[in-house]
Design goal:
Number of helices: 3
Strand content: under 5%
Largest sheet: none
Radius of gyration: 45 Å
Structural class: mainly alpha
Helix content: over 70%
Distance between the termini: 125 Å
Shape: rod-shaped
Number of strands: 0
């Protein structure tokens, strides 16, 4: 290879530096090939690492989605149970109140009801006129 480069190097730099220029060209070609191989390997390694990361991310996302689905199902069951419990409690309260006689509210009951209404952000009705 050096023999092929010597005539070209002789024309460019002269006879005195022709051999040195030819060897420098060979060294540059080898260094370029080594650098290209390094870049190619680094790029493949980077792509391999990225693929591994993407697999890990996909696994983490799948676990998260499965956990969220399980929690959503459990929340729905809890909400159904709570709604059933509230309905049963309300029915029991209504049944108990059905047995109470109709009588006007005492001042204490009226004040307690008024306080509860104000806590909810509503106004108290004016007291009804006594018959």
């Amino acid at each position: 290879m050096i023999g092929l480069l010597l005539p070209l190097a002789t024309r460019i730099v002269g006879e005195r530096f022709a051999k040195l220029a030819a060897w420098a060209f060979v060294a540059m070609a080898v260094a370029g090939a080594v650098y290209a191989a390094y870049c190619w390997a680094w790029d493949r390694g980077r792509d391999h690492e990225r693929a591994a990361w993407q697999v890990k991310v996909a696994d983490i996302r799948k676990e998260r989605d499965d956990a969220m689905a399980a929690l959503g199902k459990r929340d729905a069951e809890d909400a159904d149970a709570l709604e059933t419990s509230i309905t049963e409690n309300r029915k029991a309260l209504d049944d108990e109140m059905a047995n109470l006689p109709d009588q006007p509210l005492s001042n204490r009951q009226r004040a307690r009801a008024c306080r509860e209404l104000m806590r909810q952000g509503r106004r108290c009705p004016p007291p009804a006129a006594a018959p």
